[in-house]
Design brief:
Blueprint: E1 2-3, E2 12-13, H1 16-28, H2 50-59, E3 61-64, H3 70-87, E4 106-109, H4 111-114, H5 119-122, H6 125-135, E5 140-149, E6 157-160, E7 173-179, E8 190-192, E9 227-229, E10 236-240, E11 245-247, E12 258-265, H7 279-282, E13 299-301
Amino acid sequence: MPLFFGAGFRALDVFLPVRFAVFFLAIVGTPFPRIHSGCGLYWVMPLTTDEQRKFFDERGYLVVRGLLAPVEIARFGAAVDRAVAARCAHDQRSLEERSRYEQSFRQCINLWEDFADVRPLSFHAKIAQTAAELLDQPALRLWHDQALYKEGGGRATDPHHDQPYWPLAEANTITAWIAFDGADHETGCMGYVPGSHRFGVRKFANIFTEAGFDLEKGEEARGVPPEFAPVQAGDVAFHHGMTIHLARANQTQRTRRVHTMIYFADGSTRKANAKHRHPSVDRAGIEPGAPVRSAVTPIAWPRAAGDLPEPPPPPEPRIPGWPSWEPA
Ligand SMILES: O=C(O)CCC(=O)C(=O)O
């Protein structure tokens, strides 16, 4: 109700603070400021510090301590365990019987699609927001998630960088790596060649069939030794898609239980080379040169907390390691 103070004065609304609060909460939905402007920018309380962003920018990786609460680690770890057990139920081979690549880990991709209780992890708002801040991008999509369970006795993960595996023209990509029990030099922590995301290495290290980059004698890592980064449960380790990395072997009898999310900047386009296949773009028929936007790669950030995407139809034909795959 406006009160007037005579001609020439503007209306003074005594309910203005209440109106402002209602408007603010309606827009924001949380006590934190979040304003979407017309140009798609958003404003939230940052989760990272200047030092963390600088570290990631310079070194191409960063461990963020305690990003997940113990209750989340327990809940999501159990959900991913169930999903991996279900996806791998058909595979009774011993470690020795598997390929060199498969001896590094059991890899199960896009668990978010067919395991609803994994979905809140793969679209975890705090993790995706942190990734967006490190990459300095206003919006991210999920390229895919994957469990990487390195069993007791599992081989080291060979040195490589991720970007050449993906037919994306732009290299605005980042992975969040979550070890539910933590990971150390005995169980298989990650090591990163600091600054290698800026080395401009285009070569594809095909670790499916080969040994990956030679970090000592090869030119790719420029002789820079990797920095190994043990993590504890609750920590999330981020690395840029161009960062050369590897992981230690698992010398214990315990499985190193890891789930990862790979994000890419919204607006990224499919590489011109149509021969470079990948389910994340092929499933949705994304043409070379076109923006990679589909239900297979939904927006991960910004997304209202608790708002989870609908999964796309299962791949057709089925793809090993992806949802709904069963051996013939
Ligand atoms: O977890 C591992 O052993 C390797 C992970 C990795 O290479 C990645 O997330 O890009």
